[in-house]
Every structure is written in C-alpha cells, then in structure tokens.
Queue: 2 jobs
Job 1
Amino acid sequence: MKIFTLSEFERSVTAALKGYDNEAPREAQRNIEYLVDTVMDPLREALGTPVIITSGYRCRDLNRDVGGSPTSQHLMGLAADFRPLHDDDRERVEAWFRRDDAPPFDQLIIYPTFFHVGLRPEGSTNRRQILRYNAFGQGYRKD
Ligand SMILES: [Zn+2]
C-alpha cells in the first residue's frame, strides 16, 4: 500500500447515512492490500494523476442496499469501483488494462462514468476479462 489507504476502500456515503459499520474485517483488509499492491497502486503510478475509489469494501448490508450481487467481490475486499480524477484519462485507464504486461485482474467492467475491477483470491487464476457496459441495452457486451 504505497498510495491508496484502507480508509479509501471503507468510506461510503450510503453506509454513513444508514449507520452501517463498514470497517473491513482482517481478511478483507488483507484482500484490499493485495488488490492495491497488484492493481490499484500500479495503475495510479502509471497514470500519474489521482484515482478516486467510489466503492471499495462493502459490508453485507451496504452491498444489498447498493444492489450488489450477493457474491460480489466487493464483499471480500477484492473489487473496486473507481474513476480517474479527470474523465479525459478514461482511455488511458482502459489502455493500461489492455497492455500485454498489465497486472493480473479477473474482470474490468467499463461503465459510462466509472470502472469496476475485480480480482480472484490470492493464488487463483484471473481471467483478464474486459467487459463494456452497454448503456443502450440490457447489460454487458464482451469486447
Ligand atoms: Zn464494482
């Protein structure tokens, strides 16, 4: 954890409003560190400009309230929704994940206003799948 901090992954307006304790338990903290060391810090360093985590760790109540999948990797601290500070950098984010030497990641989902990245638990094989949310249709289009 060189650049991102744990609190950036626990912070949630929804959790605060609802009074949920969204502190990551020990195992989720280790997963967040793994996600940051593997993907988020290297991405931040490559971009050279701030990356804002819009949803990191989610306790069960928070995940339900935001409509997350019951098996969401956010529950384990293995996923982050984020956006570059400057929208102009969205293409650079996508290009970084498409590099041959990109770090392991399981899925990158490109939404119109943010990205979701998820990792499988440490030691598992990741798919490096990139999906684009189709704002005009019913879900995702595989690139
Ligand atoms: Zn997500």
Job 2
Amino acid sequence: MITPVNAPVNAPVTVELALSPDEAANTASVERAACRAAGISHAQLQSLRLVRRSIDARGRYPIVRMLVALNETTNETTNETTHETTPAIPTQPPTSPTSQASQPRKHVIIVGSGPAGYFAALELVQHGARVTVLERGRDVRARRRDLRALMQQSIVDPDSNYCFGEGGAGTYSDGKLYTRSSKRGNIRGILETLVAHGATPDILVDAHPHIGSNKLWQVVQNIRESIERLGGEVRFGARVVDVVLNQLGGRPTSIHGVVLADGSEVLGDAVILATGHSARDIYELCAARNIAIEAKSFALGVRVEHPQPLIDEMQYHHTPRNPHLPAASYSLTCQVADRGVYSFCMCPGGLIVPAATAPGEIVVNGMSMSRRDSPFANSGMVVEVTPEHYSPDDPLSALRFQQEVEQRTFAHSGHGTQEAPAQRLVDFIDGRSSTTIPKTSYIPGHVATNLHDILPAAISERLRRGLLVFGKQMRGYVTNEAVLVGVESRTSSPVRIPRDRTTYQHVHVTNLYPCGEGAGYAGGIVSAAMDGVNVAKVIVTALAIG
Ligand SMILES: Cc1cc2nc3c(=O)[nH]c(=O)nc-3n(C[C@H](O)[C@H](O)[C@H](O)COP(=O)(O)OP(=O)(O)OC[C@H]3O[C@@H](n4cnc5c(N)ncnc54)[C@H](O)[C@@H]3O)c2cc1C
C-alpha cells in the first residue's frame, strides 16, 4: 500500500512491505521491494528510511512487516541512494540549563536512581534546578561484582542487587522497552533520550524494542554523566532512612529533606521519592511517619522456562529458526475463577535471575542480553493477588503477604542459599514433586519440589488451570521439558503512595512527590521514565524553575 504525502515533487512516500526474514535483512531486496510498492524505478530512488519494523508470525511462514519512507529523485543521472535502516539518530546530549538569573537555584532531592529518578533528574537539570540524586546502591560497574557474588555465592547485599543500585531494577534487566501506557507521556521522547545516551537506534523502529543487559549499564552510566555535566550530583551508598517533616497535630504537612543512614541530613525544596517496588524500608518509614500509603494488588506466581527452540517452533512453525529472526516470544492471558492468569516479562533467549533484596528470601525474575542468544526462553507466569489475600485497611498487609511467600520459599529450599524450588510443568499440573529437573538457566541452582506446597492454594490452583488453558492456546507449551522456578513475586508494587492527580504531590505532604513504580504509578522501564519526566515538569512549574 502506498501512502503519498501531500507535497510536490520529491516528497517522501511511505509504503508498507511484507518480506521474508532473508529479504528484510538485505538492503538491496528492501530497496527493490520499496520501489516496486511505490511504483518507481530503482534509479529514481534517492533515499529510503525505515520507520517501523515488526515480525508477523501468524501465517505458516513468519514475515517481517516494514514501514519505509522513500524519497524520489527528479534527476535519474545523479542518483545516489542513501539507505537508513533507522530514522535520524538523536545524538545531541541534553542542552544546557536555562539560566535562573541570579536567584538561588531551587534544590530538588531525588531518592533512587532508577529510570524514574534518572529521567526526572535529567529533565530538572536541563531546566537549571539544583539536583541531588541519592542512591542506596553502588554505581553500575561496582554493582556487577555484587551480582556475581549473588549468582555464584548466594550473597544478597541488601543495598546492591538486581533491584537496587545505579539505574535501579532496569539496569540488569531484560531491557524490553514497550509499554501499554501510551497515554501517560512521550514514549518516543524516552526512546530518543536512550538512543542519545548509547542505546541502539533500532529501538526507534522496532515494534518490540529491546536493549539487553549487556548494553543497558553503559546507557545508564552515560545518563549519569549527562546529569553531572549539567550540574547535578549523584551520590551512591546514600540510603535514605528518615524524612525531615513539618507536622501539625502529629500529622505531616510538608517535607523539606531526608536523613541518610550515616545520620547526615540533605535539605531541599522538593523530594521525589522514586525508590522502586522493592524498597520495603521506605514503605515502613512512611507508615511510621504517618505519611499515607495504601495496600495495592499485585501478581504472584513462578517463572516458566522452555528450551528456546521449542518456543521458536511453536511461534515460527519451523526449527531451527531463520538466523534473521529474533528468538521467539509469547504473551498469554486467561481468566480463571474471576482472576487474571498471565505471562509477565517474557525473556526470549534469556536467563532466570535471583532478584531477592534481603537475605532469607527467594525471588526470581528474568533478563537477557542484547542478542537474546541463550538456549532458554523464560517468562513470569502469574496470578492476580486480590484483597482476599490482604487487608485493604492495613497499608502494609499486601507487602507482608508478598514477603511471607518469599521467606517460605527460602525456608522450603532448605540450604540457606539462593537455590530455588523447581518443578517440571507437567508435574505441577499433576500435583506431584519432580524427581529430576532438566538443566535451566538459573545459575544458583534449584531444589526439586512441589510448588503447590509453597504458593497459596488460591494462587497455585489458578496457575495450574491457567497453564492447562495455555497448553491449548500454544500447542506443545505443556511439555516435560518445561520447568517452573519459584517465586515470581515482584511483578509490581504491593503499596501505593497516593498523590494528587494534578500537582503530583503526596495527598497530604506538600513538596513530597511519589514517583515511578514504587509509588504505584508505573510498571516497567519506559513508564517509570515517563513518570519521572512528568513529575519533573510539574516541579519546574511549581517551584518556578528556569
Ligand atoms: C530482573 C528484572 C528484569 C526486568 N525486566 C524489565 C524489562 O525487560 N522491561 C521493563 O520495562 N521492565 C523490566 N523490569 C522492571 C523495571 O526494571 C522497573 O519497572 C523499573 O526499573 C522501575 O523504575 P523505578 O525508577 O520506578 O524504580 P527502580 O528501578 O526500582 O529504582 C529504584 C531505585 O531506588 C533505590 N532506592 C531504594 N530505596 C532507597 C533508599 N532508601 N535510599 C536511596 N535509594 C533507594 C534503589 O536502589 C533503586 O536504584 C525488570 C526488573 C527486574 C528486577
């Protein structure tokens, strides 16, 4: 289909192409197909730009769908085609701050250097605010050593792990960058900022953009350097343990600073609380200081892992998969007894990782490298946790429920390590312990068990029935080669820190800005980053910055 753009000679036209993976990987083939679709000769083609790319595996053979924009030359003899597989790359670093005349600069304290915290910081320094980012964990490089100790020796550092440390939970994640929260902000702007800091420009065109854990840390480090270059300060090993509040009748009314673990105070004009969904001490601090919080639903289950070639075969109908196709993924969802059962954060070609944030608990999650080339495909497989499991009147009850399951999982595995309970999918459905577990990607190891003994019955029975439904949706999914590893419990925050819809300030505490996933206003890297930008913009106006 050709979409002519309303303009005279040489105006770009966009055309949709459906190509085989081999054709899509070959520049000359793409150009030929685009010229054919646009009705021009190859000699008339001046430039070609890829706008969008997705894999369509619904038919017998997978096809690559592309939207490309072409420019036609008016002079065939001087034709030299430029072919961009990606759009123009935004390479400019963030611009210098706009001056605040001679007034003292407003000081914004940001707690947490995850996507919410760092994107808020970037936005604020660009407007000329004085910004201090306080991060309990270590910088991305030092954090890698702590992750190695976690993987190989089961040492859980409560300040530096898969959830805590520079870049937050997103840094050593899968780095999937798609979000359903398109109404919450400028997704394209977030992706462009990531590209400007070193992410592959492919993320601007792919329908399912992905960076990969091996590349994300560098992007995070570059973002920090931009924040610092524009005058911001980032402090590591800076765990916030208390808040400095104004009170009236024992109730907090406004915040003007925070207290660090070393006893020092950091005072400012506003505090952004972007501490992520695993900062239980922050929720406890809020409860202790009478800062209103609410219990919130989340989801609980396991990771399910298949050999990647099996998923490729199910999705692409061929094995081995074409080398120009990415490792296949899936997304499954159904309702069982009035509750959602669904796949979550699917990691094709990835690894299951230990994501606990304190000793004495086991939590699993998934990540992958940019090439997605591990022989395993894992995904969270979770059931909605509804208020029947906690008390909506007790703000910390959903958190306690989550914590108890994680501690029970640790106790059940019995070795005092991060070895996780595992069970073949087929045995889980039949309700019996597995006697053997095939090799998985989970490095700390596993203990064969019956996961029904660990998960609450209302969750595990729905999970069992959901897996049976998924076995019908994807033929071959229920196989003896698939393994469940428990528990996947950090799907989203079990607590919300309520804020005003317009001012983004806490409903009772002026100048306190709950932000990102930990506050209950985001789920995933891009939506957390967008929330950070949104909160920063509101602060710029509220404090008349810039
Ligand atoms: C293994 C793994 C894989 C994931 N894969 C993906 C994926 O592929 N795609 C995706 O979109 N999402 C993924 N996620 C989820 C994603 O990482 C989060 O949704 C996102 O990082 C939330 O951003 P945030 O800034 O709100 O909080 P976080 O990223 O959690 O950042 C919070 C930060 O606050 C710091 N902090 C906490 N308490 C304190 C304190 N008291 N004092 C100072 N600092 C504190 C923490 O150390 C942390 O750095 C994954 C998560 C994990 C763990």
